[in-house]
Amino acid sequence: MIYIVIPVFNRKHYTRECLLSLRKGTNKDYKVIVVDDGSTDGTADMLRREFPEVEVLFGNGSLFWTASVNLGIRHALQAGAQYIMTLNNDLEVAPDFLENTYKFIPVKPSAVIGALELDALTREPAFGGEIIDFKRNKVRYLLQELPKDKQKGLHRVSQLPGRGLLIPRTVFETVGLFDQDNFPHYVADYDFTHTALRHGFELYCNYDAKLYTYPEESGERQNRKSKSVRNFYKHLFDIKGGGNLRDFTRFTLKNCPRPYIPYYLVNGYARRILGYVLK
């Protein structure tokens, strides 16, 4: 059984639709753990009333993404979970999502496997894994390189986000949980997958397991829509800032090969500062 950990804070309409999409799936062999970090919009009541099968853990509003996920993971591991999936609430899964997830577990039982993301509104593929080049500070987006007839099955990548991320128990036993001390909200998923890769675990994106996401609803996208000095500061320094310089620095020092760190940092700082203004 896959234990699915979903961190939430308000936005109960997204949580409802996410859980309904799982309920409609062709594979029912899963257990959902929702970590509600202090929601004030009635999320807890909705979960109790509409999804009694879901186990709910509670935070006080100070956990953010990483500590919330870790709370759910610890609980799942204590329950004996062999496979855990992290899933955000602002997405929906295709009916055969879990069926196609289970299909590849016997093929790569120790691998960390992500999912193909499609835009929920257009149903067009939006994200299919990344391959990072630290030396040149560039990221290759695999989806842009693969012809249509090759966009299926497993494809090797070098980093993955936490949306629909399947993680075997043995990975946690080897590398530990997500690094909530250094990366309380963003970047923890990329850091975790790099750490797993360094310890010999393969990373794949499963193009048969499809998620439907709402990219324009992310906090960072909303921040960019209304540009101001205040939002620029939040972009660079807020715990939920997509260009957070502290998180980027810590990620670089921890994961970038030492010879490339100076250039990677300088280039990355420029991208985050200028990118907010120009995009």
In short:
The chain is an alpha/beta fold and 279 residues long.
Q: What can you tell me about this protein's structure?
A:
- The structure is a single chain.
- Helix 10 packs antiparallel against helix 11 (261-278).
- The chain contains eleven helices and twelve strands.
- With 279 residues, it is α/β, with parallel strands linked by helices.
- A hairpin with a 4-residue loop joins strand 8 and strand 9 (138-141).
- The protein folds into two domains: 2-217, Spore Coat Polysaccharide Biosynthesis Protein SpsA, Chain A (Alpha-Beta Complex), CATH 3.90.550; 221-278, no CATH class.
- It is 39% helix and 23% strand.
- The strands form three sheets. A five-stranded mixed beta sheet has the order 3-2-1-4-11, with helices on both faces. Strands 5, 6, 7, 10 and 12 form a five-stranded mixed beta sheet that branches.
- The longest helix has 18 residues, at 261-278.
